[in-house]
Amino acid sequence: MNWRLLAKRQWPLALSLAGIVIAETGSIDTPSGWWQVPGVLVVCAISVLAPRRPFDAALAAAFAIVCVAIYMRLLGVPIEPHFFLSGASISITGAAMATVAILVRESSHWRAVAGTLLVIAAMIAMEVIGWPIVSELEYRRWEPDPSSYLFGACIMLVLAIGTGLYFRARDNERASQLAASVAAAQNSERMALARELHDVVAHYVTAIVVHARAGQLNREFDVLPGIEASGNEALTAMRRLVGTLRDGESTGPAASSSLVDDVRALAAESELPVRLSFDLRDAVPQELARSVLRLVQESLTNTQKHAFSVSSVDVSLSSSDGVLHLAVLDDGVASGVPVGGSGGYGLVGMRERVELLGGTFSAGRREPTGWTVRADLPIS
């Protein structure tokens, strides 16, 4: 724990102990009695600094308490005012309670038990060492009841341990919530990266596989330029993703200012018989346009992978009442084995993307053949 955080956390305790020490000094009526002040300040300082090294602070506090009792005993002067039968004062008792509470809150179980026992032993030693200093006459005037003091000491011990356990539970709860938040953020980043890999890289790799298969079926068909272009696009997409991971910038296709032009470019790249229809009456924000491009790209990729004998793919974009409507329909026949296999994440990724934007998504088979993808996305 750094000093700034320690000061922010411990200033109420430091202020309270300082006030108690100042109030106690008013009861000192002999010059020798002032010798207790340095020892009391040391014990209080240890309790304030305890969060840095709780177990070591408990050892130091126990040692300091015993030392204060011994040298006050050698001086023949009682600590004033007495909080128990002898020896311990209010400030020392409060500092000991704070040290125990911090120890229980911060340390492991066995360290908390061992440190607490040491502090209790030191407080008992202070009472025993300081007992003979107070005169019999003073005891008769007080008429102390040892059992009541013992009961009070037990109450204070329970309060100190209970406070430490309460804050320990709060710390554990906050740590669990923080861990859950971090895990959720990491999972969100992983899902976003998975969608980018599936939507971008898989799109171009699928094109490579399609061209290679076409070349095998028709030896006269020159597929090398198409494979080279798709390979270069895949490498570019991979470099963009790596750059995103390094720089922390947003991933996604480089959407231009015209969503219509970008969709036209995607349709041309797919080499599918795409028919486009546009009726955009509202301006589409850049982030939304990028997501729409992803949806169109993944839909066309699915058509390439999962269908054959495709005679037409209808892509329509329209907007009305602040909602953008996307529909991609093909009339292909479902193939038994998708090109390059299938991880089954395409529709899942599209649905997640649409739902994150507050829209609705649906996909399913057409009759008699084909597939339909529809998405409705709020523009604002």
UniProtKB/TrEMBL annotation:
Segments crossing the lipid bilayer: 33-50, 57-76, 82-104, 116-134, 146-167
Protein name (database record): histidine kinase
Domain Signal transduction histidine kinase subgroup 3 dimerisation and phosphoacceptor: residue ranges: 189-248
Pfam family, one: HisKA_3
This protein's UniProt keywords: ATP-binding, Kinase, Membrane, Nucleotide-binding, Phosphoprotein, Transferase, Transmembrane, Transmembrane helix, Two-component regulatory system
Record has Glycoprotein as a keyword: no
Source organism (scientific name): Lentzea albida
Gene Ontology cellular component list: membrane
Enzyme Commission number, as recorded: 2.7.13.3
Organism lineage: Bacteria, Bacillati, Actinomycetota, Actinomycetes, Pseudonocardiales
Keyword Lipid biosynthesis: no
Record domain Histidine kinase/HSP90-like ATPase: where: 290-379
Catalysed transformations (reactions): ATP + protein L-histidine = ADP + protein N-phospho-L-histidine
